[in-house]
Fold these 2 entries.
Entry 1:
Amino acid sequence: MSEKITIYDIAKKLNITAATVSRALNNNPKIKESTKQLVLETAASMNYKQNKLALALKSGRSNNIGVIVPRIDSNFFASVIRGIEEELYPHGYQVIICQTHENPKRENENLYTLIDAQVDGILMSVTDVTNENDKAFHNVLQKNVPLIFFDRSKHIDGVSSVTINDFKGGYIATKQLINQGCKSIAHLSGDQSLEIFKNRFLGYKQALLDNGITFNEEYVIQSKSSVEAGKNAINILLELETPPDAIFSSSDFAALGAIQELRERNINIPQDFCVAGFSNEPFTKFMELSITSVDQSPLEMGKMSARVFLEQVGKTDTIKIEKKVVLAPELHIRKSTSRTRA
Amino acid sequence: MSEKITIYDIAKKLNITAATVSRALNNNPKIKESTKQLVLETAASMNYKQNKLALALKSGRSNNIGVIVPRIDSNFFASVIRGIEEELYPHGYQVIICQTHENPKRENENLYTLIDAQVDGILMSVTDVTNENDKAFHNVLQKNVPLIFFDRSKHIDGVSSVTINDFKGGYIATKQLINQGCKSIAHLSGDQSLEIFKNRFLGYKQALLDNGITFNEEYVIQSKSSVEAGKNAINILLELETPPDAIFSSSDFAALGAIQELRERNINIPQDFCVAGFSNEPFTKFMELSITSVDQSPLEMGKMSARVFLEQVGKTDTIKIEKKVVLAPELHIRKSTSRTRA
DNA sequence: ATTAACTATGTAATCGATTACACGAAAGTA
DNA sequence: TACTTTCGTGTAATCGATTACATAGTTAAT
């Protein structure tokens, strides 16, 4: 019923050895053309399928790569994975998915599981902001398995990364708010021990500086990436002595929450208050009051990460290859920051 | 530098055989306690990692399962995958992702690639509506690899499935429109050779029947799941002699397009026209004019599919196990169909 | 005619772990 | 004492494919 056909079965049937069969299947030039044809036909007729596990064991390459993300059901990460899969598919690599749920322990487990599974490379967005998992990272590198960080990166020798210029993202978003005439701009940030949030914040700060706006510590709120967090932020900000007239949020979800709360209070957007987000989540475009947001080109980021992996895989150079790719963020200007109609 | 430690290395160091090491590591009761401890300590100190490929080859089980979806960057599929991953993680299975991009040829390739990779099971949402790939499906089953369809299913002997009751989904969405006083309800359907779309359509039709509304062929439009398609549909429907006053769309994206086009024409929603969608995409909730939609509980669907897989894997019964799980759809009533404020 | 050079294929080791079977030593039994 | 168990470990086959090396049969070269 479910007999597995091996090259030995083919060999037996043709009265030759498995070695010859293997060579014929691999198009080895030393094999006589007639034998080759015979083997190929027999293999097809017996419905032979190469056992990749045996091949993997022999060659030491599994043709699998691991991808670790905080969660998969976010448009950003799903799109990155899509990019990775599409780029690697033609090269015969399969993509194994792991989720950390923002838990460093899970990240650690995932790393070791992937090493155990003999993946040929690991592409990931880091969750651990402490140095807990550095040992695991080094373990990967030591096994000569390419390790590539995307989006959320971390400085580790020998690790390549594909990120966007978060500083610039923060800068252009803030600049757009300034261009609209906003004078006091607040910022919803994420966990600033993560470089991406730190850099977006720095870009925001620089934009203020470059345009003669004094930076106000009170205007910076560190929060989660959720609708609820956005609402709370507005509640806090509007109770300040001098409330702001705009927000640049590191999260589209928080931006949405802010907008919902502002509407609740009958504050007009963008006339009285402008809001810009980050990530360009699908809903920012769909809203009736569409939300200005910084696009991170996740698909491109995935493809680029995959390309970096392809460049590095198989290279036995003991010299550490380290490539840092930085993609340009793109501001999608929408109604939430468009006071003037062209 | 990157020396791979095997049980032979441990054996050599301790002057015993690899068999003993293997047994010690596997907690075989025949091994003396002192030896076991010694082996475990040595293994740890040498940083030994079991080679899963060797294990997989020997046991015939890879501990990988394959998941095939049309695309991963859709909230629905990403959520299903999340559910699958979370349910299977504690059991030591890794999830390999494949995308078909709605292309039957890709589906076919993916199936064979996964078989080649010796996955222990395949969970998928079918793309192929013809019978092109039936041979591939049978190939999977013949290898005694559990095959489970989720969401988009197909009748094949021996294949279990986890779906929602699409008929009921279509029914309750339509019923809600009727309850709001809508008299002539249109339906945007998908490719009806796919059972899910057929069933949603049938549910829609039945709801009309049960409520004394005559079914009108002209009101049913088959289209893609896109914003553009929704706009086009409205353009066609509003040119009919008797235009409808509501739409039940099999796609949230098409529902959104419809809403955008209706607004363009200054038609009030929900007062003059009601719209209900399907899938409960995140944006339906976020819109200012939130959209009523049928939830398919994708996370639960993923988990359930994984559980069905776990029940079936390893069972050598030649009797075909076939389990059909049908989840209940849940209507999320929102502003786009709420004429009365409680 | 004799040796060199190919050609096509076979032999056997290898990747790393598991496991049926074998076996010597220790312990228990009559 | 002689015989049976039990215990702990070693031997070697196995999973399926690849490949360095060996070899028999041809052909070419001197």
Note: Chain B has 13 helices and twelve strands.
Entry 2:
Amino acid sequence: MPGDHQEDPLENKLLAALPDADLARWLPQLEPVDLPLGKVLYESGRRLSHVYFPTTAIVSLLSVMEDGASAEISVVGHEGIVGVSLFMGGDSTPSRAVVQSAGRGFSLKAHLLLLEFNRAGSVMHLLLRYTQALITQMAQTVACNRHHSVDQQLCRWLLLSLDRLASDELVMTQELIANMLGVRREGVTEAAGQLHKAGLIDYRRGHITVLDRPGLERRSCECYGVVKKEYDRLLPASKAT
Amino acid sequence: MPGDHQEDPLENKLLAALPDADLARWLPQLEPVDLPLGKVLYESGRRLSHVYFPTTAIVSLLSVMEDGASAEISVVGHEGIVGVSLFMGGDSTPSRAVVQSAGRGFSLKAHLLLLEFNRAGSVMHLLLRYTQALITQMAQTVACNRHHSVDQQLCRWLLLSLDRLASDELVMTQELIANMLGVRREGVTEAAGQLHKAGLIDYRRGHITVLDRPGLERRSCECYGVVKKEYDRLLPASKAT
DNA sequence: GATCATATGTACGCAGGCGCACAGACACTT
DNA sequence: AAGTGTCTGTGCGCCTGCGTACATATGATC
């Protein structure tokens, strides 16, 4: 869909939080990109050529094992940036970034981001604070994977995804969700069935609609709340100073 | 034990990797500290007053749930620093840092570290690279928790701990290990029994001795290797430039 | 509207890990 | 040398999630 309706970089909250002076410099360099379902933005061990600022898409960071088994480390949506390892100094990461929910975003050439980062001003601090939030998400996921049921994790996952979307509908198969959570597809079917029975969600073939968000939050493990709170704390919805 | 033998900050590899000019400035500010087993270096949500550079101690970063259940996110030994969230901009983290193996280290006042970090030179890049390695460890732990057996995880954990110690003996109860891995104490007993039967380790009441390191590596899941490789890549044993 | 790939539902046995309970064994105290 | 607290070993039954297999439903395509 060329000439799509929304092509505003400010839909990405990280970009929106940039001081005006910085933003003005960035805008000409940002390229709108289409992020179709399943697109791999970066692969384990490969050098990063671009970073991405999703606007309507959601991207998952996955840890992938030799045998193909995977688990989601964290999710990135319109609140963040894909490719933090670039400015952390790694050039690459041993994880994979995959578009989990189709949409759009903006890309920026790696060397340009590095230039901006190395100015060591508010841009840098903003990116580091975002990374800190990402770390929190990972840390919580470690414990969640260990201690909570598929049911609870599904709630957490739905809520985290929802926060990163405008709508209350996810275009997403259960198979995909299973890959993210690192569980069986059947396990997701079962858990989703429970949530449906409880009147919290509705779904059909590749679409999940959340009916009762507060209900989901109540059913979810504490992990969702912990992560959300930390994102809100570290990345308030206002300009960086 | 006052006037202990080794009080050399350079035993910490991160400090050792500092350019001489930076190191010279730091040395007078570093205070040797005793890190006894179980000491909490920072608590969830609390402001960090110091950062720590372990030399002979090992520190675990834990995710702690409301009900007290926990899981280790990552380990820090003589290769690193405890308190990365300070310079990442968070002031605090929702995790806890506990001394997992008694020993010593050096502390540095938070504001001094921030001053150094904000010079935005090689110190900053070194710390960020270290943080990137830490992130890798977390990411791998997410997947490991999900897909690997207690047996394999114990191997990984032993190896990671060993890399952060001089000796091949860990002073550590199975109960403690269970807390780190987020499993039952009995599960660790069982797994340790297996490893003993296989001639890989020896142990008695609070002490574990590794007999066959290569054997452990073979028995461990791939996660150990992935993490190790990334630490080596990001933090080579030489001065930063 | 028939066809077909793909998404979802269900069932069954199995294994790993949990919670609990208690027995033995070790090291430190006095 | 005895006493004591803690650490380790072991044995249940239970439940969750896994692997496998197959049945059914749905929505896109022709």
Note: Strands of chain B lie at 31-35, 40-42, 50-54, 58-64, 70-76, 96-101, 103-109, 169-171, 201-204, 207-210.
